[in-house]
Fold this sequence. Notes:
- The chain is mainly alpha-helical.
- The protein is built from eight helices and four strands.
- It has helices at about 20-30, 45-55, 65-80, 85-100, 105-125, 130-145, 155-170, 170-175; strands at about 210, 220-225, 230-235, 235.
- The strands form two sheets. It has a two-stranded antiparallel sheet with strand order 1-2. The chain has a two-stranded antiparallel ribbon with strand order 3-4.
- The longest helix is centred in the middle third of the chain and has 21 residues, at about 105-125.
- The chain is flat and about 70 Å long.
Amino acid sequence: MNRLPDIGQVSDLRLGDHPGFDAWFYSFCAENNIEHGINPSGVASPEQLRFMVAMDERQVYAPCSDATFRELAASFHLRSFPPRVRSQYIAAWRSIIRVVRYEKDRQKRRDMINYCRHRFRGCLALGNILPSRLVKRLVTTLISHFDAGDPWLNERLFYNETLASFLRSQTLQKALGRLPDGLSAEGIPDPARGGGKRQMRTPGHLYRFRSLHPAGGGAFPRPAAHVSLHLRDGGRPCP
């Protein structure tokens, strides 16, 4: 019962078929902060997830590639990490050390490294934390202790300005407002105009922006969810 089933594609897995996998997957979700029951305000509910990802009722979802998920599950039996995940953890540690180097105080930098080493070893012992999630967890902690603040603030400002410009672009608005071939808006009432025949309106008004500037008076808008820097895992970003 404690052995996990053979995993091909994550999309083929269903909860309720294997008690050992159900327990392991719940621990996986909890450690990677993707369990709605533990963090209902920050994690999508199963109903919301099925709406966004098109899943059936018992299907599981993991924010990583099938290969990474298989190797994490395999480490449960092997008590060691296969090469792919091991290389991702090595890259994660190097990323964390690069962040620590932003701290100028030598003693504080040494304390940060010791803390990260302790946390990193603890996460490796669990064996079910995604490398990208581990980086996010430790980097968030490190930045909160920097005297100079977020070292990537200017880079985030740049990427958010680029994203805001793209969302306002005519190219995107035309693509979002275009009807599929064979459909016509003729005769459809437009509520925004108090009835009458509908004229195609782009959904750009659905976007809501707010300032990212530290003082609250930024020169450009940004999406409510800012673009963050993170490792990519199998082509999918960490949520």
